[in-house]
Every structure is written in C-alpha cells, then in structure tokens.
C-alpha cells in the first residue's frame, strides 16, 4: 500500500487560516482584490483563469480580468501594469505565462510591484528565496510542493530530495526552498545520465517534466515519497502526471495523484498570496 497524498486536505487546511484573515479585513471594510492579465485565448489559460475566479469568489476575494490581444505591445503591457501597481484597491497582479515572443519577459517581470507580485515573477522576490528568506512571495507551484510535504509530516531535514526540473517556476526556486529546510537537494534535467539510479536512492522525488507517464516503478524504492507536479494529457485524453501511477502505486511509500494532487494546492496558495499581500499593504 502507498499513502496517497491528496492536495484537497492541504488546501482545506490553508483555507481555514485564510478565511479568518479575510473576515478580519472585512471588519475594516477591506476586500482583497487580484488583477489577472491574460494574453490571447489559450484554452489552458482560460481554464486556469476560471478556476482562480471560482476559488476567489467562494472565499470572498474580488477579481478583475484584463484580456489582451496576442499582438499587445510592450508599452501597452507596461502601462497597464503601472496602472495596477498604483491602484490601491488592487492587492495582487497575476500575468499568465509564457508571453508571446515579441514581449520582453524580464522587463515585464521586474515591472510588477514586488508588493503585488503574487506569483513571484519579480527578481527581487526570487532573490529573497535564494537568500534563504521564505517570508515573502514564492512561486506557487514550488510552494505547493513544500506545503504538501509539511502537511503530510514528511521529514525534510537531512533527507535526500531529487527534483526532475530546472525551470525558474518549479525546480530552481524549489531547490532553494528545500535547502532552507535542510534537505540535501539534487536537480536533474533532460541531459541527466542514469536518471533512475539517482531517483532510486532518494528519499523524496519531485517530478515536473511534462511527459505523460514517462516514469515507472524502476525509478523508485519501496521507501520513496513521490510528488508529481506535472499536469499532462494521456493518449486517451485523460489528465495524468509524469508518473505511470498504475505501475508505481503500491510500490512506494507515498505518492500524489494527478489530478487531485499538487495542482489543488497551487491555486489556494495563489489566493493566500493575494490575502497576505492585502494585509501587508493595509497595516
Ligand atoms: P519546463 O520549463 O518545460 O521544464 C521541464 C523540465 O523537465 C526541464 O527542466 C527539462 O530539462 C526537464 N525534462 C524534459 N525532458 C526530460 C527527460 N526526458 N528527463 C529528465 N528531465 C527532463 O516546464 P515547467 O513550466 O517547469 O512545468 C513542468 C510541468 O509542471 C508541466 O507539466 C506543467 O504542466 C506542470 N505545472 C504544474 C503546476 C501545478 O500547479 N501542478 C503549475 C505549473 C506547471 P531541460 O531543462 O534540460 O530542458
């Protein structure tokens, strides 16, 4: 038997604290608000946007969406972000990534006020994580992995953690966050040799490759804790992770399902960041 690490329990736990904070803000006539900037009509962006709006509405957080054409100019983007930075009613700014190629991603990332940067795009917030300061905004997916491990009491101190991903959204910030929790971290990627021999010796394996069912039982031991961050679609059109769940379930200590795993925590943390940002901006 493997323990199944569902995201829902973690999300519910986080929402309890959040609800109290929202109630306290309401008593002062303050309602947290997020501005969402979506460029183009990509179906996964629209689905993500719907899920954020639904979750925000349920918790009493206001949303406003700016839908921009794919051809939006750099100046239009920067002007909009500047306007939102100055708007005292907006507590968080979320820009969906990746951007169209003609836009300068780095410039846009740094233009978002560090105080409203709920998805940790501004290098100032990333820098804090690399300095070991975990009290600011963190990339929600990486933070969701840490929250899952903490909630299920999976020991990090001294544990060997292997992360298969080196992106700025997942692998790099996550490695620094785990390091701050005294884990020993190895980062793997597409050029890593003998991947399965590395993962097999780890206590915890985090995968965010983006390839449906690429990883089977050969990569793990009976003591492995497996965190699957990826959201892929399999040959039958069903959502799945990087892990071949049916082959791995029962042969490891614990495993996250996809869907109903890390993804459920990511959106909750995004909303938590809006609320936390709102509190800090109104002290
Ligand atoms: P990405 O930038 O494409 O990163 C993929 C990583 O996997 C890269 O580091 C890549 O190595 C590595 N990789 C590719 N093929 C490999 C192989 N055969 N063996 C070992 N490593 C390999 O993607 P991302 O934006 O970080 O997202 C990764 C996944 O996370 C996606 O499936 C996405 O849907 C999911 N995601 C989930 C959430 C959530 O809330 N659960 C949120 C965001 C993203 P190189 O660096 O060498 O190319």
TrEMBL record:
One Pfam assignment: THF_DHG_CYH_C
Domain Tetrahydrofolate dehydrogenase/cyclohydrolase NAD(P)-binding positions: 139-278
Record has Oxidoreductase as a keyword: yes
Pathway(s) it belongs to: One-carbon metabolism; tetrahydrofolate interconversion
Gene: folD
Catalysis performed (reactions): (6R)-5,10-methylene-5,6,7,8-tetrahydrofolate + NADP(+) = (6R)-5,10-methenyltetrahydrofolate + NADPH; (6R)-5,10-methenyltetrahydrofolate + H2O = (6R)-10-formyltetrahydrofolate + H(+)
UniProt: NADP(+) binding residues: 165-167, 231
Annotated Tetrahydrofolate dehydrogenase/cyclohydrolase catalytic domain residues: 5-119
UniProt keyword terms in alphabetical order: Amino-acid biosynthesis, Histidine biosynthesis, Hydrolase, Methionine biosynthesis, Multifunctional enzyme, NADP, One-carbon metabolism, Oxidoreductase, Purine biosynthesis
Protein purpose: Catalyzes the oxidation of 5,10-methylenetetrahydrofolate to 5,10-methenyltetrahydrofolate and then the hydrolysis of 5,10-methenyltetrahydrofolate to 10-formyltetrahydrofolate.
Protein name (database record): Bifunctional protein FolD
């Amino acid at each position: 038997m493997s323990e199944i690490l569902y995201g829902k329990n973690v999300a519910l736990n986080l929402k309890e604290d959040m609800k109290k904070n929202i109630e306290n803000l309401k008593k002062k006539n303050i309602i947290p608000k997020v501005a969402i900037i979506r460029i183009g009509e990509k179906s996964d962006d629209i689905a993500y946007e719907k899920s954020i709006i639904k979750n925000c509405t349920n918790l009493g957080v206001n949303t406003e969406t700016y839908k921009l054409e794919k051809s939006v100019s750099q100046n239009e983007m920067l002007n909009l972000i500047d306007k939102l930075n100055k708007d005292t009613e907006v507590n968080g700014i979320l820009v969906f990534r990746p951007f169209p190629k003609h836009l300068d991603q780095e410039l846009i990332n740094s233009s978002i006020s560090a105080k409203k940067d709920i998805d940790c795009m501004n290098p100032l917030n990333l820098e804090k994580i690399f300095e070991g300061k975990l009290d600011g905004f963190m990339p929600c997916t990486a933070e969701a992995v840490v929250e899952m491990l903490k909630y299920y009491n999976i020991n990090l101190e001294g544990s060997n953690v292997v992360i298969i991903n080196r992106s700025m959204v997942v692998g790099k910030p996550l490695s620094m966050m785990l390091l701050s929790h005294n884990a020993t971290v190895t980062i793997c990627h597409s050029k890593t040799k003998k991947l399965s021999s590395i993962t097999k010796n780890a206590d915890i394996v985090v995968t965010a490759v983006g390839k449906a069912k690429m990883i089977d039982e050969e990569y793990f031991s009976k003591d492995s804790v497996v965190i699957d961050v990826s959201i892929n679609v399999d040959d039958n059109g069903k959502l799945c992770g990087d892990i071949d769940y049916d082959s791995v379930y029962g042969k490891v200590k614990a495993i996250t399902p996809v869907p109903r795993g890390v993804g459920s925590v990511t959106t909750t943390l995004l909303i938590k960041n809006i609320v936390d940002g709102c509190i800090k901006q109104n002290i």
